[in-house]
């Protein structure tokens, strides 16, 4: 286990590190040299990465804070990179090794695609089996409202729309479709039965 400790310039030599007091035992200070050895080591090579086995490059990793919007952070980083790139020496450029925004955009497109596909499939199923366009319209209205309600509740409870939540919503659309078909079919059957009974009485 290693710790990187940055001081304010008070430490001038190895002996200064050895004499740092860590604790106090019966009035006797316990120093670093009492529990271990201090020695000079090689300088740490921070920010150096191997690029596809072709050589070393200067690299960096952007760490996002908790509860931040990943898409907004990535856009802000890209804007800052463009700004900094103007002042780089000739021949020095930025190269992105991993961009998380691509995965986020694909997840959003997956939710949109799933919603559109399910709406078309449900409309066809209801029209073919019930021959009732109003029942199809009910489900078409229900699907986008259900998905929108999911995002609204996520926002209300302070939960970010991450990859997991988008995947969950995409899967839940199928459940909403199944329930919608069953409810519309039962409603249509009951209404049709009530209409038939009224006609018989008349």
CATH class of the largest domain: Mainly Alpha
Strand order of the largest sheet: 1-2
Order of helices and strands: HEEHEEHHHH
Backbone structural class: mainly alpha
The CATH topology annotation of the largest domain reads as Multidrug efflux transporter AcrB transmembrane fold
Describe this structure in words.
With 202 residues, the protein is mostly helical. It has three domains: 1-44, no CATH class; 48-85, no CATH class; 101-201, Multidrug efflux transporter AcrB transmembrane domain (Multidrug efflux transporter AcrB transmembrane fold, Up-down Bundle), CATH 1.20.1640.10. Helix content is 59%, strand content 7%.
Give the topology, please:
Layout: H1 14-18, E1 21-25, E2 28-31, H2 32-35, E3 48-50, E4 56-58, H3 70-85, H4 100-130, H5 133-156, H6 163-201
Antiparallel strand pairs: 1-2, 3-4
Helix pairs in contact: 4-5, 4-6, 5-6
Concise overview:
By secondary structure, this protein is mainly alpha-helical.
Attribute tags:
two-stranded antiparallel sheet; disordered C terminus; single chain; mainly alpha; Multidrug efflux transporter AcrB transmembrane fold; elongated; 202 residues; 4 strands
């Amino acid at each position: 286990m290693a710790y990187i400790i940055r001081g304010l310039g008070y430490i001038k030599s190895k002996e200064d590190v050895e004499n740092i007091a860590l604790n106090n035992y019966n009035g006797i200070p316990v120093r670093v040299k009492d529990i271990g050895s201090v020695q000079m080591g090689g300088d740490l090579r921070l920010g150096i990465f191997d690029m596809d086995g072709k050589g070393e490059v200067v690299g960096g990793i952007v760490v996002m804070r908790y509860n931040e919007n990943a898409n907004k952070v990535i856009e802000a980083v890209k804007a800052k990179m463009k700004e900094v790139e103007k002042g780089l020496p000739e021949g020095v450029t930025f190269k992105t090794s991993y961009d998380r925004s691509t995965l986020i955009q694909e997840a959003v497109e997956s939710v949109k695609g799933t919603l559109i596909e399910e709406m078309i499939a449900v409309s066809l199923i209801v029209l073919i089996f019930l021959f009732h366009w109003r029942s199809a319209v009910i489900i078409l209205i229900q699907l986008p409202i259900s998905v929108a309600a999911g995002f609204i509740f996520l926002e209300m409870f302070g939960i970010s729309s991450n990859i997991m939540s988008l995947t969950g919503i995409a899967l839940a659309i199928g459940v909403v479709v199944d329930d919608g078909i069953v409810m519309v079919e039962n409603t249509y059957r009951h209404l049709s039965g009530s209409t038939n009974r009224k006609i018989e009485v008349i």
